[in-house]
Design brief:
The chain has 634 residues and is of the alpha+beta class. The protein folds into 2 domains: 82-355, Beta-galactosidase, Chain A, domain 5 (Distorted Sandwich); 364-615, no CATH class. Helices cover 44% and strands 23% of the residues. 29% of the residues are buried.
Length: 634
């Protein structure tokens, strides 16, 4: 190889090396090219995956089939209501200064009711029921003959809660269908009231429901919570009550589980506790009503379970709404009576009948005497212990003439006792009729009637029984303290024990109430004082009568130990005043002077012709007829 050839190869190598250096890519260009190539690779990979294989094609078809099957199943089950078959449960609150009501979108129902001005016995918020304890729904029938309930469907609010110029709040919950038809539940809560307005209005529902539908079946149920201190006492006053449209208020049994089917039209149904109630009132009436009350176990936090199945009128075309009122509030006589002010007699709700004031004359005494007096004193003082004391003093002053007359009758018979003893010694026991006639003759001559001491006592009985009903049902006494009693509507225990004692625990309880104990002591003292002022009568089993009189206060102690301490306090004060009155009257009456007056009256009456037709003559006539009958049998 010659010299020129070598120079040519070297020159070519230098040119190649120089060109390669000039055309060499920078690090940035290399990175950009790498990113570009990676992107191309990803695109190619996606294209490959997008080509369906046999297995992926089958999975896609199956998923699509499942969705279509679920949709068809919902439509088949719910019909035109399938649009409301699924949803998210939301809560809306209607609230004023008295109540707080929570309404759920599922079922469009009231799921929680709280009374803001009251607390439970253990200072917790007073809730009548929550979502798990209560249910209210309506049965719906679809065009494809499926039976649904509104509790399983989802409602939607038409808008936010509205409030008018006076503070009344309104919430409308709408149940939609797959078409243009829908149903509205409208709730209206007044600014200062326990009574909630509730209306159902349909719009074109006749197009999605079978022809001929003109009513809805309604179901309402609730568990009654224990709100008070004494379970057994509260349980006794809890009941399911109702009022017929053209009749009075009635109720299921309070002492046992009960069920009743009502044929007549019903105006309202109440789930009642001792001091609070939930009352469902129809503007028209309920028909085909079935009510059921079931006792809960003693270990449960609930007292009873109430159920009401009813039928209400319903216009699916929407021309006529179905309206109700629902009361969530206290069983206070003044509040419940206010709903009947200015209302015609045949249209009155008579919700105040939920308060057990006693039947007949006892209820009248409470209604026209005790409650007005109680309300009058409540205007001027807030201490209910002092109010009860004042009421007791007023009642004892009103009854004092009867008390005085009863004592004077006993005093007259007591000063005549030596003469009665003389008659009993003179006439043997075998001639009981003759002995009785001689005694009656003596009473007639001195102007003494054995019945004159009984009649005043009998006239006092309506007041005693009226107050027996009033105090346990007066919500004004609830959680009101006085002296050692923290709640005048419950027992005032000063001693408690956990041991079960046969006979004692079932009737007396595991506690000792001080007001009840004081009532018993004063009752025994009053009995002893009364027996000392009464003439003894061995013929009438005087010793046995004494034992019965002393046994009665002890029996009452078993009865009242778990009763409202306000009632025991009243009886204690009333009996104490009676003892004081008895001592005062005894100090004013001179028995020697009284005996002299009776003898003077006997002399005067002996000069007058005997009156006929009086009590003594009727008694004497009965004795003669009895003697005649005895002779006839002999």
């Amino acid at each position: 190889m010659d010299k020129n050839t070598i120079y040519g190869f070297v020159l070519i190598a230098l040119i190649i090396i120089g060109f390669s250096q000039l055309t060499k890519k920078s690090d940035k260009e290399i990175a950009a090219e790498k990113r570009y190539n990676d992107s191309i690779a990803l695109v190619e990979q996606a294209k490959v995956k997008s080509i369906p294989t046999e297995s992926t094609a089958k999975e896609a078809v199956l998923a699509d089939s499942t969705v279509k099957t679920d949709t068809a199943s919902v439509v088949n089950t719910y019909g035109d209501f399938s649009a409301s078959a699924k949803g998210e449960e939301k809560y809306f609150i209607l609230e004023n200064k008295l109540v707080k009501l929570t309404i759920s979108s599922k079922g469009g129902r009231i799921c929680d009711a709280q009374l803001k001005n009251y607390r439970t016995h253990d200072s917790l918020p007073l809730i009548l029921f929550n979502e798990q304890e209560s249910s209210m729904g309506f049965t719906l029938v679809t065009n494809n003959n499926r039976v649904l309930n509104t509790t399983d469907l989802y409602f939607e609010p038409v808008s936010t809660i509205t409030k008018d110029s006076v503070g009344n709040q309104t919430l409308i919950m709408r149940l939609k269908t797959s078409g243009t038809a829908y149903m509205d539940f409208a709730y209206t809560l007044p600014a200062d009231n326990y009574m909630l307005g509730f209306g159902i209005k349909a719009y074109g529902m006749n197009t999605v429901m079978p022809l001929g539908i003109n009513s809805l079946e309604m179901q309402w149920s609730a568990k009654i919570r224990q709100q008070e201190k004494g379970r057994k006492f509260e349980e006794r006053y809890s009941s399911l009550e109702y009022k017929y449209v053209a009749d009075d208020v009635e109720k299921l049994s309070e002492s046992k589980s009960d069920e009743k089917k009502l044929d007549n039209k019903v105006k309202w149904v109440a789930f009642k506790d001792q001091f609070f109630s939930s009352i469902l009132i129809s503007d028209d009436a309920f028909t085909s009503t079935t009510l059921k009350s079931v006792f809960e176990n003693d270990s449960s936090k609930y007292l009873k379970s109430f159920n009401a199945d009813m039928t209400v009128a319903f216009d699916p075309s929407g021309k006529q709404p179905t309206n109700f009122q629902i009361y969530f509030g206290p069983n206070q006589y003044k509040i419940l009576s206010a709903y009947d002010k200015g209302v015609k007699s045949d249209l009155k709700l008579r919700l105040n009948k939920l308060i057990p004031l006693g039947w007949g004359i006892f209820g009248w005494v409470n209604q026209f005497a005790i409650i007005p007096m109680f309300n009058l004193f409540s205007r001027f003082m807030s201490n209910f212990g002092l109010i009860i004391l004042l009421m007791t003093v007023v009642i004892k002053l009103v009854l004092f003439p009867l008390t005085y007359k009863s004592y004077m009758s006993s005093a007259k018979m007591r000063v005549l006792k030596p003469e009665i003893d003389e008659i009993n010694e003179r006439i043997p026991k075998e001639k009981a009729a003759e002995r009785q006639k001689a005694t009656m003759d003596l009473y007639g001559k001195v102007g003494v009637s054995p019945m004159s001491g009984c009649i005043p006592s009998m006239l006092q009985m309506p007041i005693l029984f009226a107050l027996f009903s009033f105090f346990p049902s007066a919500i004004e006494l609830r959680q009101q303290s006085f002296l050692w009693a923290t709640d005048l509507s419950a027992y005032d225990s000063i001693l408690n024990w956990n041991t079960y004692i046969p006979i004692i625990t079932p009737y007396f309880g595991n506690h000792l109430s001080l007001f009840c104990l004081l009532m018993t002591v004063t009752s025994i003292l009053s009995t002893k004082l009364t027996m000392a002022t009464q003439p003894t009568n061995d013929q009438m089993g005087g010793n046995m009568m004494k034992w019965m009189m002393y046994l009665m206060p002890v029996t009452f102690m078993f009865m009242f130990n778990s009763y409202a301490s306000g009632l025991s306090y009243y009886y204690f004060v009333s009996t104490l005043i009676t003892v004081i009155q008895t001592y005062a009257i005894r100090g004013m009456v001179d028995e020697k002077k009284l005996l002299a007056q009776l003898h003077a009256k006997r002399v005067t009456n002996s000069k007058k012709p005997a009156k006929k037709g009086g009590f003594m003559d009727r008694l004497e006539k009965m004795q003669r007829e009895q003697q005649k009958a005895v002779k006839g049998r002999k």
